Amino acid sequence: MSLAAVRSITSAALRPRGTAEAARGGPHLGRGVVTAVHDGSAELLLDDGAVVNAVFALSLPYAACRGDELLVIGEDGAHFVIGVLAGRGRTSLELQGDVAVRAVDGTLSLAGDRGLELRSPVVDVIAGDLRMTARAMVETFVTAFRRVSELLHVHAGQELSVVDEASHQQAKTTSIQCEDTVTIQGKEIHVG
């Protein structure tokens, strides 16, 4: 459908419709509620009670759900979905090749009301400074390796480390300082 045709339908749809025009399938622009979803189209219940099949003509792919409210435009039995008024479906942005997103002279912010997921075989985070703030953090790895070239500083209210097998620490010098009691417990304790 050409841009001129869409403008013509939109202009005509915004004019008041009489019952005769509606009966012969005149221009329509309005809300439609999804009653069924098909591949590339959806069955919609219009405000005037008519049930039509509308083809998706959105800039981004949208997977509609029953009960979604969509913006529909159409004429002579051909209807197209051109907007989502209220929906629970999924919008997908899929691009071929490398994709770069950048906020020039600004901050790039990503937010999700129910969460944020990153999925990739490899994730690289490169930053001058990295700051993380959270109420709780859970990390699960098969193997973890961390290298700090200068100072590793940990400040915690309490610390608990549980190692199922062997634990090994190596340093040029080691200092343990405690204000109260130091307890070492084991079947055998070797010094030297």
What does it look like?
The protein contains 2 helices and 7 strands, in the order ααβββββββ. 8% of the residues are buried. Strands 1-2-3-6-5 form a 5-stranded mixed beta barrel. The termini are far apart. A hairpin with a 2-residue loop joins strand 1 (28-38) and strand 2. It has 192 residues and is mostly beta strands. It has helices spanning 3-13, 19-23; strands at residues 28-38, 41-46, 51-56, 62-63, 69-75, 78-86, 90-91.
Tag the structure with descriptive keywords.
single chain; 192 residues; mainly beta; two-stranded antiparallel sheet; 7 strands; 8% helix; elongated
Give a quick summary of the entry.
This protein has 192 residues and is mainly beta. It is 8% helix and 22% strand. The strands form 2 sheets. It has a 5-stranded mixed β-barrel.
